[in-house]
From TrEMBL:
<feature type="region of interest" description="Disordered">
    <location>
        <begin position="354"/>
        <end position="400"/>
    </location>
</feature>
<dbReference type="InterPro" id="IPR007407">
    <property type="entry name" value="DUF459"/>
</dbReference>
<protein>
    <recommendedName>
        <fullName>SGNH hydrolase-type esterase domain-containing protein</fullName>
    </recommendedName>
</protein>
<dbReference type="InterPro" id="IPR036514">
    <property type="entry name" value="SGNH_hydro_sf"/>
</dbReference>
<feature type="region of interest" description="Disordered">
    <location>
        <begin position="62"/>
        <end position="102"/>
    </location>
</feature>
<feature type="compositionally biased region" description="Low complexity">
    <location>
        <begin position="69"/>
        <end position="89"/>
    </location>
</feature>
<feature type="compositionally biased region" description="Pro residues">
    <location>
        <begin position="90"/>
        <end position="100"/>
    </location>
</feature>
<feature type="compositionally biased region" description="Basic and acidic residues">
    <location>
        <begin position="389"/>
        <end position="400"/>
    </location>
</feature>
<dbReference type="Pfam" id="PF04311">
    <property type="entry name" value="DUF459"/>
</dbReference>
<feature type="compositionally biased region" description="Basic and acidic residues">
    <location>
        <begin position="372"/>
        <end position="382"/>
    </location>
</feature>
<dbReference type="GO" id="GO:0016788">
    <property type="term" value="F:hydrolase activity, acting on ester bonds"/>
</dbReference>
């Protein structure tokens, strides 16, 4: 018995020690129902209710502070969520409406532009230059593949008189020659470029075309060729510009030199340069021949200055139609009762010519002022005349 009691006592001591060292801990998930577990005593001796351990559940083992730090960290950049990607983009601001074109006057002066494909771009931008001038209309009648050489394709000396009679221009602008570096056919021979015979015949054709304009007493502006990217084409353009300048000057026209506007300081061809406003822009196309829109506008700017000088006041943007339709209404005021006195205008230079001797409202001449003896003495230091017979009557003494 003693030995049995000792074993039981030791067992109880061990049991109490284990109970103190390993206390029962609550379930980590507070929202779950508490479930009592079997202890060591139940496992050794049984008794009481038997409890079944619940199925293991997923337990969040991360501390709460660590979760909060992860939530505060910014998300890595990546693809936008589907909701954001599907959201419509804000509409771009609408461009300001283009102002209405200025109505042209019935008697507006016409500018006729003729020539090849370079003249076509010149005419378009010259219309832009005068779009706010009601007294000027630009009529562009170019033919892109034409020239002075291939008259079998398009004969300008035959077509230009018809165009002049149709448009009735106040100014004719010619820009031609970019297609003329080729063989020329005449009635007697075929002239190769650039032979002497070719240049002689070309000079004659320049004079023929220019005379059609100047013989009608119409101002003529002949626009020269620009620089080109091809060295041979650029060299020939210089030669042709010399012919245009000489022949047009003899006819009484004006040669518009645009060469410096499309070369650099050393005279070399440029693709990008200053536009008409002095800003850097692309002026020429990738082929080294054609112009961009900025280049055409700069080309028209050279011609615009000459045209405004010839057209005078009609080229002004401030010109309005002066007729009875836009004169201000005259307001007739009733007569005022205080202005019943008749008004007689007189000349300020010579009143005697219109019968008047004084201005309106002039006061009559005041009567002469009689000075007292005191005023005479104080102002001029003079004494009044002495009475006759008195000793200081010097006049009596001199007469005696």
């Amino acid at each position: 018995m003693v030995g049995g009691k000792g074993i039981i006592g030791r067992f109880l001591v061990i049991l109490v020690t284990v109970a103190l060292v390993v206390p029962a801990s609550p379930a980590p998930a507070e929202a779950q129902e508490r479930v009592q577990r079997r202890n060591l005593l139940d496992m050794l001796f049984g008794g009481g209710r038997r409890y079944i351990d619940p199925e293991p559940s997923i337990i969040d083992v991360q501390p709460r502070r660590q979760r909060q730090l992860r939530q505060q960290q910014p998300r890595p950049r990546g693809r936008a969520p589907a909701a954001r990607a599907a959201a419509p983009r804000p509409a771009a601001p609408a461009a300001p409406p283009k102002p209405e074109p200025v109505a042209k006057l019935e008697n507006a002066r016409q500018i006729l532009v003729v020539g090849d494909f370079l003249a076509g771009g010149l005419g378009d931008e010259l219309s832009t230059a005068f779009e706010e001038s009601p007294g000027v209309v630009v009529a562009e009648r170019s033919n892109g593949s034409s020239g002075l050489v291939r008259q079998d394709y398009y004969n300008w000396p035959e077509q230009l008189p018809t165009l002049i009679d149709e448009v009735k221009p106040a100014l004719v602008v010619v820009m031609i020659g970019a297609n003329d570096r080729q063989q020329m056919k005449t009635a007697d021979a075929r002239l190769d470029f650039p032979s002497d015979g070719w240049f002689t015949e070309y000079e004659r054709r320049i004079r023929e075309l220019g005379t059609i304009v100047t013989s009608r007493k119409i101002p003529l502006l002949w626009v020269g060729l620009p620089s080109f990217q091809s060295p041979s084409l650029m060299r020939d353009a210089v030669k042709l510009n010399g012919l245009y300048r000489t022949e047009v000057a003899e006819l009484g026209g004006e040669f518009v030199d645009i060469w410096d506007g499309f070369v650099d300081e050393e005279g070399r061809f440029i693709v990008t340069g200053s536009d008409m406003n002095g800003q850097q822009a692309r002026l020429r196309g990738s082929d080294g021949i054609n112009f961009t829109k900025a280049g055409k506008r700069k080309l028209a700017f050279y011609v615009e200055k000459y045209a405004r000088r010839h057209l005078g006041e009609m080229a002004s943007p401030e010109l309005v139609k002066l007729d009875a339709s836009n004169l201000p209404e005259l307001q007739v005021l009733p007569p005022s009762p205080t202005t019943a006195v008749p008004v007689q205008p007189i000349s300020l230079m010579d009143p005697e010519l219109d019968g008047g001797t004084e201005l309106l409202g002039a006061s009559p001449t005041p009567p002469p002022i009689v000075e007292t003896p005191r005023d005479m003495l104080v102002k001029r230091g003079e004494l009044p005349p002495a009475p006759k017979g008195r000793i200081d009557d010097y006049q009596r003494s001199t007469t005696q």
